[in-house]
């Protein structure tokens, strides 16, 4: 059987950047085995398969080279950009059926794709310097004392979250499992130097991922190459055959929730939107920029996250044919 696959780079800052994804636009007749075989041959971290849906405008399924996953941000961006590029859809709002639920997607006139994710769920916290905390640091090849958010405070400017450097005592954050569709362990480190120095032990990361029932690690620092952005990140998911990923949409939604919960929640009450921008892929020479937004409402004097959106652009669109 011949399968037509579109390839492109989601969240790319420039040509050659971003996170490569495969997209199969007419996949309703494919079996699970055929989709997995296609994903293996494409060889990217995820391939999206677009199908008919009785519940939404489209049904999307996502496969790594190893297994099916509930949701994939960058492959969603790629799939809707591919449909926009081929004239299958026009700018507007759509609903996609996924294993993580029915989620909204909006395509802008310039081709930017913004996807809704589930509201953040917060799970296990790993306390600083306990046994597993030290083990996570060992799996990244970094020292425990180089983790945490240090000498930064959160601030809002024109509804965008920025971090300001301040002199004063260090603030140590916990590692925490967060999900907006997929569970990730969110790990703060103190600096770009520490982020870049990471030397991952994939076997140990896999072992810890199984223990905490997570997709992988999302490591971040509030030091960025661009002062207007919120954080720079690295993502490791060897349990699903992804050693490192250059742009991760679902993890960006989880990180946005984590940063709000730990850095802004106690400081603001807001009916409105907080915007964040995350750099990723810089250590892989695949510069990526992921936009994330949180829609907030004040209910009974408490601010709650009503919606999470993540998005960006895609480029470098190509087509290939595979025999499976």
N-C termini distance: 5 Å
In CATH, what is the homologous superfamily of the largest domain?
Diaminopimelate Epimerase, Chain A, domain 1
- How many runs of DSSP E, i.e. beta strands? 20
Order of helices and strands: EEHEEEHEEEEHEEEEHHEEEHEEEE
Shape annotation: globular
- Largest sheet at a glance? 18 strands, mixed
CATH class of the largest domain: Alpha Beta
Mean pLDDT: 91
Quaternary structure: single chain
Provide a compact summary of the structure.
With 324 residues, the protein is an alpha+beta fold. The chain has helices spanning 32-42, 73-85, 131-140, 192-197, 202-212, 249-264; strands at 2-10, 19-24, 47-51, 58-63, 68-69, 92-98, 101-107, 113-117, 121-126, 152-157, 160-165, 175-179, 183-188, 216-221, 231-237, 242-245, 272-280, 288-299, 302-312, 314-323.
Name the features:
6 helices; 18-stranded mixed beta sheet; Diaminopimelate Epimerase, Chain A, domain 1; 21% helix; alpha+beta; 42% strand; two-stranded antiparallel sheet
Explain this structure.
- It contains six helices and 20 strands.
- The protein has 324 residues and is α+β, with helices and mostly antiparallel strands.
- It has an 18-stranded mixed sheet that branches.
- Helix 3 (131-140) packs antiparallel against helix 5.
- The longest helix has 16 residues, at 249-264.
- The mean pLDDT is 91.
Layout of helices and strands:
Layout: E1 2-10, E2 19-24, H1 32-42, E3 47-51, E4 58-63, E5 68-69, H2 73-85, E6 92-98, E7 101-107, E8 113-117, E9 121-126, H3 131-140, E10 152-157, E11 160-165, E12 175-179, E13 183-188, H4 192-197, H5 202-212, E14 216-221, E15 231-237, E16 242-245, H6 249-264, E17 272-280, E18 288-299, E19 302-312, E20 314-323
Parallel strand pairs: 2-3, 4-6, 13-14, 15-17
Antiparallel strand pairs: 1-2, 1-20, 3-4, 4-5, 6-7, 7-8, 8-19, 9-12, 10-11, 12-13, 14-15, 15-16, 17-18, 18-19
Helix pairs in contact: 3-5
């Amino acid at each position: 059987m011949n399968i037509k696959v579109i390839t492109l780079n989601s969240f790319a800052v420039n040509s050659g950047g971003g996170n490569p994804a495969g997209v199969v636009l007419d996949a309703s007749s494919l079996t699970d085995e055929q989709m997995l075989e296609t994903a293996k041959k494409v060889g990217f971290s995820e391939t999206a398969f677009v199908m008919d849906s009785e519940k939404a405008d489209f049904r999307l399924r996502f496969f790594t080279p190893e297994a099916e996953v509930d949701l994939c941000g960058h492959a969603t961006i790629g799939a809707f950009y591919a449909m926009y590029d081929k004239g299958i859809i026009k700018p507007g709002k759509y609903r996609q059926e996924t294993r993580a639920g029915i989620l909204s997607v909006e395509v802008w006139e310039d081709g930017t794709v913004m996807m809704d994710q589930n509201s953040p769920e917060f799970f296990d916290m790993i306390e600083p310097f306990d046994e597993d905390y030290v083990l996570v640091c060992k799996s990244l090849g970094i020292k425990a004392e180089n983790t945490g958010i240090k000498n930064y405070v959160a601030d809002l400017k024109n509804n965008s979250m920025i971090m300001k450097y301040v002199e004063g005592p260090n603030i140590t954050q916990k590692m925490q499992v967060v999900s907006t569709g997929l569970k990730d362990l969110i790990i703060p480190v103190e600096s770009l130097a520490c982020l870049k120095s990471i030397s991952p032990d994939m076997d140990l990361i896999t072992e810890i991922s199984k223990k905490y029932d997570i997709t992988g690690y999302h490591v971040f620092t509030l030091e960025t190459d661009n002062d207007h952005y919120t954080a720079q990140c690295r993502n490791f998911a060897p349990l699903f055959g992804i050693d490192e990923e250059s742009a991760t949409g679902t993890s960006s939604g989880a990180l946005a929730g984590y940063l709000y919960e730990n850095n802004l929640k106690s400081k603001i009450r807001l009916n409105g939107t907080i915007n964040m921008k995350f750099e990723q892929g810089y250590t892989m020479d695949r510069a990526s920029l992921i936009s994330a937004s949180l829609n907030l409402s004040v209910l009974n004097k408490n601010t709650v996250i009503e919606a999470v959106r993540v998005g960006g652009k895609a480029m470098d669109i190509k087509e290939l044919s595979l025999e499976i």
